[in-house]
Amino acid sequence: MIVLGVILLVIGFLTGIAILWTIGIILAVIGAILWVLGAMGHAVAGRKHYW
After folding, report:
1. Predicted structure pTM score
2. Exposed end of the chain (fewer CB within 10 Å): N or C?
3. What does the CA dihedral 6, 12, 13, 18 come to, rounded to 10 degrees?
4. At residue 36, does pLDDT exceed 60?
């Protein structure tokens, strides 16, 4: 999700399309939050790993 957000940010910046820029920011922020929660050991979206 973070990678998709960054790709949309770059495309939106280069083409000047504001909606891509906005969606890219939102996806990057949500992806970063989910990544941090997963790294802290919290179950994200009901997924729990037992390793």
Report:
1. 0.72
2. C
3. -120
4. yes
